[in-house]
Structure formats: structure tokens, C-alpha cells
């Protein structure tokens, strides 16, 4: 007549719920993205991402100190150069904006882990992630020549002080090319966090405002993954592992938690989830309109990423989450 098993017994109080909680978000899980721009004293808010700024190197350093003081162990750097060209010169030049920012942050906050996004779309005049055929307006990137640019970029970032290289262009063989370049340059101990399963997603829209990286024509569907595919993600991560990846990333995160789970089940490497710009901006817009409780929604979402198997979470909510976790 009456239930023998009563799961509600362990839900009665806050302390009981804490004791039996299966997944917990901590500041150690968080990675904070930062956008570096040339100049000094610049903090330009991204219109489509309230609370996110394009920052000059001096402001990046100040932000890095705040991030470290909040207990967040890592940042990932993106750059917006002064000039763009077909060679993506700003990506691999020793005086590139990410290189300058990495060096300055490493000098000011040596214990903070610096991840360098190793991609070319912010630096090419056409906005695609590598070389194109002359006259090509489809956006079909030439794979093998682009590997040379990615290799040069990774080595220059490591020389500048980046602790982790994170290639995101989804070129075939990009992990192996970068691993080879790093090893030959004496950076055998520099790990690679591969964007192993990066989907051609509509959730990236606000990021392209922040990084000024929207393609001038075509799209990125010939190199980023089809959102309908999941088995292909396993193929991609297996290739990256074989090529020497040390960690794997799934991007985006919110609509791809099944992929995070499958990747975690398929490997014993650390798995990162990128809580991307569109996911952030939707929450911010709803919160600013009073439609949701921002803190509760953000923390529930981050917990969902952990539950799905993510060991690390790249998120623009990182600083807010760190503060909330201290409450």
C-alpha cells in the first residue's frame, strides 16, 4: 500500500541535497574567453554580448588578474588584428595581438594558464580559416597549405607564452601538423586542446561580432561539422587522439550535450565544452528583460555540461559563476 523506496528522503534539506549531489561545478572547471585588440586603454563592449568586451593588452592584463583572483585557473585568448590579409599574417607574426597579450599576461600573472585559440578566420581578409583558391567565392579552404599556417601560428603562440594550444579550424590533420611543429621548435611539453568536434552552428553569431570574423562570402560548412551528425564526432576525436591531442573540445555545448557524453564515453582524455556566444547572449537577453533568473539558469546550464561529461567549460559566464560559487 505504501512506497518502500522514497527518494524524497534525500531531498528534504539543502545540506542533504549537497551531500548526495552527483555533479558539482567548481571554479577549477572554468575557462574565460578574452578578446584582444590593438591600442591602449580600450574596453569596447560587444553589442550582441552584454558584459563582454574587446580589450587592449593593458586591459587584458587587468582582466587576467581579476580572473585569477576569482579562482578561475585559465583564459583563452582571441585576437583582432590591425590589418587582415590572405596570409593571415597577424595570426603567426611574433608581434601579433594574441602573442603580445600572451606575453603580457604571463609576465603579470605567471600562474594563470593561457590557452591560445589557433585559428585564422580573425586574421584573413576573407574571414575564412585558411587559404582559398584565387577567385573562389564558395569558402572552400585549401586544407594542406593551411596546415603550414596553423603550424607557424601555434609555434609563435607557444614562444609568446601560451601554455596550451587550441586549434579550432577543423582542417584535416591539423593536430598532427601542430604537434610536429611544436615538437620541432622545442615545445614538446605544450599540450594541445583540440576543437575536435566543432559544428557549423548558428549559435556562433555574436562571437563573430566580438572577433570580427564573419566570412565575407560563403560559409564554413565545408570544414566545420554538420549539426545533424554524431557518429562523425567520434571519428573526428579518434583522428585527433591518434595525431597527438591531449584534450578534446566540443563546440557548441548546449545543443550538443549528447556529443559531450558520447565523446567522454569514447575516450579517457579530458573533455571541454564551449558554452558559446549565442548561448550566452540568449541568457543575457532573457535576464535583462526579467524573463529568467540569470544566476539559476547559468548554474543549471553549467551543471548540465558537467553532468553530460565535460571536465572543463569555456564560458563567458565564468566570472559571474565564480562569484556565485563563493556565496
Plain-language structure description:
By secondary structure, the protein is an alpha/beta fold. Helix content is 40%, strand content 15%. It contains 12 helices and 10 strands. β2 and β3 form a beta hairpin. The mean pLDDT is 94.
Record keyword descriptors for this entry:
single chain, 327 residues, alpha/beta, 10-stranded mixed sheet, 10 strands, 40% helix, 15% strand, globular
Question: Which word captures the global form?
Answer: globular
What is the end-to-end distance? 44 Å
The proportion of strand residues reads 5-15%
- Given helix and strand content, the structural type is alpha/beta
- The residue ranges in which pLDDT falls below 50 over 5 or more consecutive positions are none
Helix content: 25-40%
List the helices and strands and how they pair.
Elements: H1 14-19, E1 30-36, E2 43-45, E3 53-55, H2 57-69, E4 74-79, H3 89-92, H4 97-108, E5 113-118, H5 143-160, E6 164-167, H6 174-184, E7 193-198, H7 205-211, H8 231-243, E8 247-251, H9 257-266, E9 271-275, H10 277-288, H11 294-308, E10 312-315, H12 318-326
Parallel strand pairs: 1-3, 1-4, 1-10, 4-5, 5-6, 7-8, 8-9, 9-10
Antiparallel strand pairs: 2-3
Helix pairs in contact: 2-4, 4-5, 5-6
Amino acid at each position: 500500500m505504501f512506497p518502500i523506496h522514497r527518494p524524497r528522503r534525500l531531498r528534504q534539506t539543502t545540506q542533504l541535497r549537497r551531500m548526495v549531489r552527483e555533479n558539482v561545478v567548481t571554479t577549477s572547471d572554468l575557462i574565460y574567453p578574452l578578446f584582444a585588440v590593438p591600442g591602449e586603454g580600450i574596453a569596447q563592449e560587444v553589442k550582441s554580448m552584454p558584459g563582454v568586451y574587446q580589450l587592449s593588452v593593458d586591459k587584458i592584463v587587468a582582466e587576467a588578474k581579476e580572473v585569477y583572483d576569482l579562482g578561475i585557473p585559465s583564459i583563452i585568448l582571441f585576437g583582432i588584428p590591425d590589418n587582415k590579409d590572405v596570409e593571415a599574417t597577424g595570426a603567426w607574426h611574433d608581434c601579433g595581438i594574441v602573442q603580445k597579450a600572451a606575453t603580457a599576461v604571463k609576465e603579470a600573472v605567471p600562474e594563470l594558464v593561457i590557452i591560445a585559440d589557433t585559428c585564422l578566420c580573425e586574421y584573413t581578409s576573407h574571414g575564412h580559416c585558411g587559404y582559398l583558391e584565387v577567385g573562389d567565392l564558395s569558402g572552400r579552404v585549401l586544407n594542406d597549405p593551411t596546415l603550414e599556417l596553423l603550424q607557424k601560428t601555434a609555434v609563435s603562440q607557444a614562444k609568446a607564452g601560451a601554455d596550451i594550444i587550441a586549434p579550432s579550424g577543423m582542417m584535416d590533420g591539423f593536430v598532427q601538423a601542430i604537434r610536429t611543429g611544436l615538437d620541432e621548435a622545442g615545445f614538446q611539453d605544450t599540450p594541445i586542446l583540440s576543437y575536435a568536434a566543432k559544428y557549423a552552428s548558428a549559435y556562433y553569431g555574436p562571437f563573430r561580432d566580438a572577433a570580427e570574423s564573419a566570412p565575407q562570402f560563403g560559409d564554413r560548412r565545408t570544414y566545420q561539422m554538420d549539426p545533424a551528425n554524431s557518429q562523425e564526432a567520434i571519428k573526428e576525436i579518434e583522428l585527433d587522439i591518434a595525431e597527438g591531442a591531449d584534450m578534446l573540445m566540443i563546440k557548441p555545448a548546449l545543443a550538443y550535450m549528447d556529443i559531450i557524453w558520447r565523446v567522454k564515453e569514447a575516450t579517457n582524455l579530458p573533455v571541454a565544452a564551449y558554452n558559446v556566444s549565442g548561448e550566452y547572449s540568449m541568457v543575457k537577453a532573457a535576464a535583462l528583460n526579467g524573463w529568467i533568473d540569470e544566476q539559476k539558469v547559468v548554474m543549471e546550464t553549467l551543471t548540465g555540461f558537467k553532468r553530460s561529461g565535460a571536465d572543463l567549460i569555456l564560458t563567458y559566464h565564468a566570472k559571474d559563476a565564480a562569484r556565485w560559487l563563493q556565496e
